[in-house]
Amino acid sequence: MNKTKIDWATMSWNPVTGCLHDCPYCYARRIAQRFHGLDGVGSDGLLELSERRDHAFPAGFMPTFHKYRLDEPVKKNKPQVIFVGSMCDLFGDWVPDGWILRVFESCKEAPHHRYLFLTKNPERYLNLYYKGKLPEQPNFWYGTTITNQTDYERVWRRLANLPQTCNTYFSIEPMHGEINLGFMPPWIIIGAETGSRKDKKIPKREWIESIVLACTEEAVFMKESLRPVWGDNLIQKYPW
Ligand code: SF4
Predict the structure, then answer these.
(1) Per-residue confidence (pLDDT) for residue 198, from 0 to 100
(2) How confident is the model at residue 38 (pLDDT cuts 50, 70, 90)?
(3) What is the DSSP letter of 91?
(4) How many whole angstroms from its chain centre is CA 52?
(5) How far apart are CA 109 and CA 194, in angstroms?
(6) Which string of b and e fits 117-156 if b means at least 16 CB within 10 Å?
(7) 61 with 81: CB under 8 angstroms?
(8) What pLDDT does residue 25 have?
(9) Which end of the chain has fewer CB atoms < 10 Å from its terminal CB, N or C?
(10) What does the alpha-carbon distance between residue 42 and residue 35 come to, in Å, rounded to a whole number?
(11) Which superkingdom, per the lineage (predicted)?
(12) Residue 56 CB neighbour total at 10 angstroms
């Protein structure tokens, strides 16, 4: 578990790494490829490790379960806001239920922290919920990433269909277009694309304003990456 530069969390924790979504703007894939080790994945395309390897990403960006990291939250006494899985999509369809449940168990063993989960595949939250496997803990937050209106239309019902005992949020990052939000979870994070990708898109101020105006009771958190567009008065609210 490491201190993070991500401004809405204090630490990131990666018991699982790797992702198959193939987003063109992915920073995690670039890092994983840089620190690629020599391990291969099994016939199921997955790798499980009980012990630490020399390389941080033994199978590059292929899905890897670092079981030896599961006790990291319980070893940290001071309460933290932990982004779980900054280098993966823990709820990707390729991730076995068993991996996710082991991660949930580790979180439950250290209830003094707040855990922020984030996925592009919120269908999996519902899927786990219907199986009675999605914890309804007050310190667990289930987020989904959206970047434009098409993403929003695809995913909003997934969060809306979770019970109110499950905390939810949107992470609109990188913001790639105007988004008209009908369903509003209690927390909305907004960020711009970073890095120097050739097709990088800069959000327009009016796209951000329309979200801020729509949020009457919901907390908005603007990431530092919005500063060049929004200016110095970034709104940075938490729902807790
Ligand atoms: S979902 Fe996240 S980790 Fe996966 S490819 Fe996209 S940006 Fe990278």
Answers:
(1) 83
(2) confident
(3) T
(4) 23
(5) 35
(6) bbbbbbbbbbbbbeeeebbebebbbbbbbbbbeebbeebb
(7) no
(8) 86
(9) C
(10) 20
(11) Bacteria
(12) 16
Structural tokens at position 9: 């969390």
Count, residues in the chain? 240
- Which atom of ligand 1 is the closest one to the Cα of 120? 1
Partners of 167 in beta bridges: 141
* Reported confidence tier of residue 1, pLDDT bands at 50, 70, 90: very high
Residue 144 Cα to ligand 1 middle (Å): 12
| Cβ neighbours of residue 96 closer than 8 Å, sequence gap 6 or more | 46
Rounded Cα distance, 103 and 109, in Å? 10
SS3 at position 166: coil
Q: Beta partners for 81?
A: 114
* pLDDT > 70 fraction of the chain, expressed in percent and rounded: 100
| 42-46, 95-99, 199-203: least confidently modelled range | 199-203
Tokens of 173: 């990052």
CA atoms of 146 and 190, how far apart (whole Å): 10
Q: Which of 26, 27, 121, 197 to mutate to test the pocket of ligand 1 (most atoms within 8 A of CB)?
A: 26
216 CA to centre of ligand 1 in angstroms: 30
Q: What lines the ligand 1 site, CB under 6 Å?
A: 19, 21-23, 26, 28-29, 89, 120
Query: In which residue are the tokens 């209690």 written?
Result: 186
For residue range 142-168, list pLDDT tens digits in order. Answer: 999 999 999 999 999 999 999 999 999
